[in-house]
């Protein structure tokens, strides 16, 4: 009986620990990030990526690179298909279009909605660090990320640092790369066809955020060679499957551009 009681206590403790690390900590980190980042007033956005905040509107309007992406997202909503151009970062432009579809020209609401989505970044880094080391490492990395972004927001009037409230692709690309790292770890652990195809498709989506992400592909393949225990044939077959799905993911966009 004592042995069974001890086993039950051990199982209960394990379940509680999993509930904390898999649910409560990530949710707490997400809510903390969103609350702190949203608490920074819009007035701090007076830099080159936003026009001066003046009357009568008295709200931040995107300018420069941010204005360009917002301009393209508006063109999608009125049915002019990127105004006949081939825009960079198409996936982010579509994301902005979705926000404008729901919130119209209410830029404070659009910025708040973007912040709501981007607050997932510390949570992704939490799971990444937890996977590589421990939950404590995950919390540490996530908190560093939250407060680094908080400082970035407060000083954005005096520097050109991109942040979560700007309509630029730096922040979503960072989120995409962090997610790709999680997917890559899952792929290199399983090394089966399904995980290979998912990893290839994920990398293709990452390229639609920022094509410069292609620079990390050789590093990923080098890591894969070691993960496949230097079995060259299996590694090449996995690379072919990865590359094929990656190309198929971006093919509709390439066809559109052509």
Q: Would you give an account of this structure?
A:
The mean pLDDT is about 90. Helix 1 packs antiparallel against helix 5. With about 260 residues, this protein is mostly helical. The N and C termini lie far apart (about 75 Å). It contains ten helices and no strands. The protein is globular, with a radius of gyration of 22 Å.
Map the helices and strands:
Elements: H1 2-39, H2 64-77, H3 90-103, H4 107-118, H5 121-132, H6 135-154, H7 170-190, H8 193-209, H9 217-227, H10 232-257
Task: Tag the structure with descriptive keywords.
mainly alpha, 10 helices, 72% helix, 0% strand, globular
Largest sheet: none
Q: Give the overall pLDDT as a whole number.
A: 90
Number of strands: 0
What is the CA-based Rg, rounded?
22 Å
- Total helical segments: 10
Distance between the termini: 73 Å
Instruction: Report the order of strands and helices.
Output: HHHHHHHHHH
* Unreliable segments of 5+ consecutive residues: none
Shape: globular
Structural class: mainly alpha
Helical amount = over 70%
β content, as a range? under 5%
Task: Give a short synopsis of this structure.
By secondary structure, the chain is mainly α. It has ten helices and no strands.
